[in-house]
Amino acid sequence: MDEETAYRPLTWPLFLELIRLPAKAASLLPFLLGVAYAKLAFGQLDWVNTCLYFVGQMSIALFVTGFNNVQDYYKAKDLQYRATQNIIGREHLSPGRMLALMGAFLALAVAMGLALVWRTNLSLLLIGGAGIFVAIFYTFGPVPLSRIPCGELLAGLCEGFGTIFIACFVNITPRPVDLTFTVSHFVLSADLGMILQLLLVALPIVILDGTVMFADNICDIDQDIRNQRFTLPYYLSKEKALRIYPWLPRLAFVCVVLAVLLRLLPWPLLAVLLLWPLVRRNTQRFMAKQSKRETFNTAISSLLLVASGEVVLMVVAILL
What we know:
- 70% of the residues lie in helices and 3% in strands.
- By secondary structure, the protein is mainly alpha-helical.
- Helix 3 (25-42) runs parallel beside helix 16 (297-319) and helix 15 (276-288) packs antiparallel against helix 16.
- The chain crosses the membrane at residues 50-67, 98-117, 124-141, 153-174, 186-207, 251-276, 296-319.
């Protein structure tokens, strides 16, 4: 019996754990928020582009999580972690097969992206290419992005702002970024006002998405040190990281209020402030105990609460 046949098959429950299905809502909700904002603020919606981007966005989200699990398995210095905690080693799955499966998801995402480039503008090739670069090199390469103190920023910008920006980009004209070629030169132009508008609208999700990664790294700080992953909490120290942590959800709510005051969001979005007691309770639970199994999900819960609240309120505002 060769090594490949000795591995366990990938069952449906194991696949769902491999891709961390509950966390996929963190990719779906920014997509829905971007689509809703395109309709609310610009009065435009392209259903074909929206469906293409939905398939591409979810494919890249599945790729990132599964690929990260495979790379963590290969790069693990702590053999006990690789054998008992990483799903590849714990369930004796074939790393090669898992890598091939994630490659299929990446190929599907690239195909959807190229279709959208053809239907929209060449500038999307640069934007999408930057996102895929981060997705691949987040855990791949000699110095993965996840092992340096910028993972939280990259996660927030890519999954938060990037998703919302592209969801608007594929639905509206004129587009916030435009790239045109002629025989002798090319012209890249950008509407800075529109880009800043989308950034401010996306900031609450950017912050809360980064907070999820921050909470993850706080919980894993000891394990990360053993595996030579030097994340932001390592450089800050756990004590300083925990002093910063409770201010991040507060900043996210401040950004919602600021967007409403600047009339980038309609006043019904202020109702999202009613979710603050739930978010504060989640934050307090995490501050009391930093555990991957017991309290890490509070950060995800806060992100989902605010993102889903904004989506629902935008839909209400559209209907009104």
